[in-house]
Amino acid sequence: MNKDKLKSIIESLLFLWGDPISIKDIEKCLKVDKKDLKMVLDQMKSEYEIESSGLRLIEVNESYQLSTKPENFDFIKDFVRESAEKNLTKPSLETLSIIAYKQPVTKMEIEDIRGVNCDSTIKGLLDSSLIEISGTLDRIGHPNLYVTTDFFLKKFGIKNLEELPSLEDLRRD
Question: Domain of life, per the record (predicted)?
Fold first, then answer.
């Protein structure tokens, strides 16, 4: 295998895996001599050191990992923080499931099912545009009615609510 092809495969492997990969594992996976592999990894390390690259190749205890350059952190930290905030917690998923299956539903109904206060969870789901207020009930306090959004459908890869698994199917699993 030529060096350019080997470099391309190693880069793809490191990018896909994300975590450090030992040189032994790379060697075993690619069936390449350790000396040749080390030479290609050193070349890659040098190439990533140029200023125009946003990546670097880190070596720790004969394991390698692709990483962003630390000098770029100030430019990407807000994006990383926003992405992390988009991940759903278990309480968020539970609340979202209740809303998806029972909509339109009030906060009180959600809390009766979950058995805990859901103020912050509902606020987080509203902030992430996974749910919205579709109206209010005409009773004391005029509680909000919550429903899922089109963004919810998109995020979970479904066309409509009919594509949700039935509750009976979920109970059997």
Answer: Bacteria
